[in-house]
Write a structure and sequence with these properties.
It is built from 15 helices and 15 strands. By secondary structure, the chain is of the alpha/beta class. Helix 1 packs antiparallel against helix 2, helix 5 packs parallel to helix 12 (355-370) and helix 9 (233-247) runs parallel beside helix 10 (274-284). The structure holds ligand PLZ.
């Protein structure tokens, strides 16, 4: 089929008429009216998604992947509705972004108002109050009661990259310490900081220099030390510190960057005591401690920031994803004396702190506060933990259940071993999508299923999603 023929066929299928027995009365709309239900009206992917996939294949770089085979038409609360009218329970939230929902009423309204006022002036040209208000809010909600400053950017990678720039300007040192399994982004510096080669780094080197990797605390895989004792948090920190001191030298390190709960690396929660010991060592050595809360932050774990679970106060916190209800916004927030270290004009970017994204962020924060979403994250987490532990108790392929709040995961293994079973994770995610539930995988070994429901999702919908997962684990696909 030529490209023109593909387009002609697509145009026919996109019309309002019936096809393959499906009549869509009207396009679904997001927002409060979107039915919160799992509903399958075609095979998955349906005909309209298949037509879009054909157009995409001819138009979009094949290097860009998608986890799901269907195309979105509307999303909100806890569901994504596709172009064929199927409604999926969404356990991924666009990779931990739509914590308040993908069409949260306050966000929709604030964005509409801001768009009508102005879409952009560039904060570096003509500043505006939304940026200042978001900075004030981030200074208030991040851990630590010292004087803080914030700088806003657009993507999570940019926030991490700027945190490194700021730490280097402040310390006059260049070394950056990151951890096994870390994910920090896809720009050149953040690729160097990200651990996993495939697919993030493959063929894209050379990478930025002076980035050093230390061992993480990974309770499921850490095993025992030379004396046969389990590697607890302080022991894992001592192991990491020894590596840094021997291989880099503390006096060369500008910053240590760590995800308080690792995201892409497999939702790894370091053993208790790991983060506090690392922070103390960093401070003893004049090293800036950066918490990358891009995935774990903004109410996701039942605390505003995952650091709070261990009471640690980082020098700098990077935020993105959930903070703006789906609009692109990121930030670096931290101690005033560190944040003010770079030269005037040293931080910025054309779109950093875009006014529409700032309006969305203020509305997202109001939603978290007024709708009690911190409590919801904890409640959703408890529900998921109960369901996942029950699954693990009857299915030996579930090797570990872990996470915090509404950031939960299971690590899948060959029964009775720690051998990762990535194929199983892939099959479960695929079969769940066929049955109307969206689940994302992650992990260095690709064998982790992660659960990141919108905090606007109700208990019933979440329970239904886990009923479906139970079926999938019990059924032929698994
Ligand atoms: N730091 C902790 O989780 C983004 C990336 C998915 P950006 N994680 C999802 C993918 O395959 O690209 C992330 C993160 C942590 C930084 C980032 C980077 O955020 O907004 O994707 O640049």
């Amino acid at each position: 089929m030529t490209q023109t023929e593909t387009h002609r066929q697509t145009a026919t299928q996109e019309g309002p008429a019936a096809h393959d027995g499906l009549v869509l009365q009207e396009a679904p709309r997001g927002g409060p009216g979107l039915p919160q239900e799992r509903r399958l009206v075609t095979e998955v992917p349906g005909p309209r998604s298949r037509a879009l996939a054909a157009r995409r294949s001819a138009a979009v770089s094949h290097a860009v992947g998608s986890s799901m085979p269907f195309y979105a038409a509307a999303a909100g609360g806890g569901v994504v509705v596709d172009v064929d009218g199927n409604s999926f329970i969404d356990l991924g939230s666009g990779i931990a972004v739509t914590s308040v929902g993908a069409s949260a009423p306050r966000v929709v309204e604030a964005v509409g108002e801001q768009v009508a006022q102005f879409t952009h002036t560039c904060f570096m040209v003509t500043p505006y109050d939304g940026y200042v208000a978001v900075a004030e809010a981030l200074n208030e909600i991040t851990p630590g009661d010292f004087e803080k400053r914030t700088a806003l950017f657009t993507s999570g990678a940019e926030a991490v990259e700027n945190a490194v720039k700021i730490a280097r300007a402040h310390t006059g040192r260049t070394g950056v310490v990151v951890f096994d399994h870390a994910y920090h982004g896809r720009t050149n510096l953040t690729m160097a900081m990200t651990a996993k080669n495939m697919p993030y780094k493959e063929g894209f080197g050379p990478f930025a220099t002076d980035v050093h990797r230390a061992p993480l605390s990974y309770p499921f895989r850490d095993g025992v030390d030379l004396e046969g004792n389990p590697v607890d948090g302080p022991a894992a920190a001592a192991r990491a510190i020894a590596v840094i001191e021997k291989q880099v030298g503390a006096s060369n390190v500008a910053c240590v960057v760590v995800e308080p709960v690792q995201g892409e690396g497999g939702f790894i929660v370091p053993a208790e005591g790991f983060l506090p010991a690392l922070l103390e060592w960093a401070h003893d050595n004049g090293i800036v401690f950066v918490a990358d809360e891009v995935q774990s932050g903004f109410a996701r774990t039942g605390a505003m920031f995952a650091c709070e679970h261990e009471g640690i106060v980082p020098d700098l916190v990077t935020t993105a994803k959930g903070i703006a209800g789906g609009l692109p916004l990121s930030g670096v927030t931290g101690r005033a004396e560190i944040m003010d270290a770079p030269v005037v004009g040293g931080l910025g970017g054309t779109y950093g702190g875009n006014p529409v994204a700032c309006a969305a962020a203020l509305a997202a924060l109001a939603t978290v506060r007024e709708d009690g979403l911190l409590e919801r994250a904890t409640a959703l987490g408890e529900l998921m933990t109960t369901r996942l532990r029950a699954l693990a108790a009857r299915d030996p392929r579930v090797g570990d259940v872990r996470g915090r709040g509404a950031m939960m995961a299971v690590e899948l293994v060959e029964p009775g071993t720690h051998v990762p079973d990535a194929a199983l994770a892939g099959r479960v995610a695929k079969e769940a999508a066929q049955r109307g539930v969206m689940v994302l995988t992650c992990g260095t070994f690709g064998n982790v299923l992660r659960f990141l429901p919108s905090l606007a999702m109700g208990d019933e919908l979440l329970s239904e999603a886990f009923d479906v997962l139970d079926e999938v684990f019990a059924g032929a696909a698994a």
